[in-house]
Amino acid sequence: MSSAVEVARAWAAADVDAETRAELEATIAAAEGGDELAVAELADAFRGRLQFGTAGLRGAIGAGPNRMNRVTVQQASAGLAAFLLAREPHPSIVIGWDGRRGSEVFARDAAEVFAGAGVRAILLPRLLPTPVTAFAVRHLGTSAGVMVTASHNPPGDNGYKVYLGGDDEGSQIVPPVDGEIAALIERAAATPVSEYPRGQVETAGEGVWEAYVAATASLGQPAHEGGPRVVYTPMHGVGLETVEAVLDAAGFPPVTTVPEQAQPDAAFPTVDFPNPEEPGALDLAFALATAEDADLVLANDPDADRLAVAVPEDGGWRMLTGNEVGLLLGWDAARSARGRGVLAASVVSSPGLGAIAEAHGLEFVQTLTGFKWVSRVPDLVYGYEEALGYLVNPGTVRDKDGISALVRVLTLAGDLHERGSSLAEELLALAGEFGAFASGQVSVRVTDLARIPAIMAALRAEPPASLAGLAVTAADDLSLPEHGSIGDILRFALADGTRVMVRPSGTEPKVKVYIDAVSHEGSPAQRVRAAQEKVDAIAEAVRPLLG
After folding, report:
1. How many Å apart are CA 184 and CA 252, to the nearest integer?
2. 444 with 546: CB under 8 angstroms?
3. Sheet holding 342-346, edge to edge
């Protein structure tokens, strides 16, 4: 422990942030007093460097190289600046931030380091949704963009997300660029951040946000008469202001907002995890929707790049899966594509989008997991990933965008409402036309990260022979070249055509299992029921495999 304490003391002495320095000093004192939790915290905080990958940086806020803090953010910025300067003589970057703890300070630190290194640095005018930053990279024509956010991660986390302009068209970074930047960050970390030069930072005017609002509003077409009554929540995040402005500009009636979750609050006091997928996260929205006799519940995650949709069912509310929304929006996009363009989804998303694409004479592409891949598909007209991420406007934003998706969902729901139908009824109609594609997910959250590779290794070594009474007819390791070297994903094919995929989460300490089943027999309702029964049975069968 003594060596860990010595390293921690050296960090504390050089820490530029009084808050994290005080927290670290308290942890050091507790560790020296025999507190085992404090000893473990020091060991983890100083066991290595927070990994810079295709999601940029993301981790717990705190002191130490394995945490998100002002030092690691400035080191990352110095490394990214070196990368940009090696690419072009006069690079530029736009920086945005959300309402999480430390986001604005991190954004301003990053901007000053970029400017000091010779990169033109433009800060967005205030905290704004992630899609606005992604939009700004293209709108301003910058070389890159950084968004300080941890999206839907737990309250104690923050992150640093990187986009590239130019030929990358504002998409997130992908290999090998992430490795090149990581190496430059390591080099930059050899110099104390107190010695980094600082430069003059520009602040963008409101025109960037206004342009995003106008571009996103243009995607919407309100119902002529009435329309569904909507309850909305930004989940303590930054979505409300922009959502209200977009809906007003598009001519939609106002939505009813969950008051307890309306304003940014880094503590996320009303939810255990600020992720619409988590059980209980939408309880306040459902209660308000019931009281208001609403027709629809819409929710963004805290940085508004994801969208959740819920519909009335049996006197309560049912949240649609990401695949259900993905297929509805895919069908919506396919109708407008008129036989030209590509629909895309990540490999863990529903194969149902392929059936929709084929029926409309469109190409369907499956990508590696993550929007960094979905967004890069040539001739893309629509792309999605099952984790509530949708890209409906690739001409302006090359990332998932929960606000533009909200506009298209409202447009579709309004059109159906005028015709006496609903999103739920349209899903039945799609089941009748294309077959019922049901999906489910089982995930295990871990505190010991070593459990994740252990679970994956055990499944590789001994794949299940059967699941829920169905023989496993193929067990494929998608990390191998013969299966495309897609990533750390295991795919199991079952005798009835059901697909099961297992992978570590790219953003959270979880192992995730994705289950996709299809039924073509019987009425639309019977198809939906049969497919869901398959998914439910498999979900129960895979839980023991995850320990």
Report:
1. 47
2. yes
3. 363-367, 342-346, 380-385, 389-391
Q: Hey, what amino acid is at 124?
A: L
SS3 19: helix
The CA-CA-CA angle for residues 92, 98, 103, to 5°, reads 80
For the chain, where do the domains classified as CATH 3.40.120.10 start and end?
Answer: 52-204, 210-314, 322-433
Domain 436-546: give its CATH superfamily: Alpha-D-phosphohexomutase, C-terminal domain (3.30.310.50)
Residue 274 CA to residue 447 CA, distance in Å, equals 18
The 3-class SS string of 316-380 reads: EEEECCHHHHHHHHHHHHHHHHCCCCEEEEECCCCCHHHHHHHHCCCEEEEECCCHHHHCCCCCE
Tell me the pLDDT tens digit for each residue of 477-487: 999 998 878 88
Q: Give residue-wise pLDDT tens across range 44-72.
A: 999 889 988 877 999 999 999 999 999 99
499-to-395, 440, 473, 490, 492 alpha-carbon distances in Å: 33, 11, 10, 11, 6
CATH code assigned to 210-314: 3.40.120.10
Query: What is the CA 343 to chain-centroid distance, rounded?
Result: 19
Give me the active site residues, please.
151
* 185 and 79 Cβ atoms separated by less than 8 Å: yes
Q: In whole angstroms, what separates CA 509 from the centre of its chain?
A: 14
What is the full DSSP assignment across 419-464? Answer: TT--HHHHHHHHHHHH-EEEEEEEEEE-SSTTHHHHHHHHHHHS--
Encoded amino acid at 347, one letter: V
* Overall pTM surpassing 0.70 (yes/no): yes
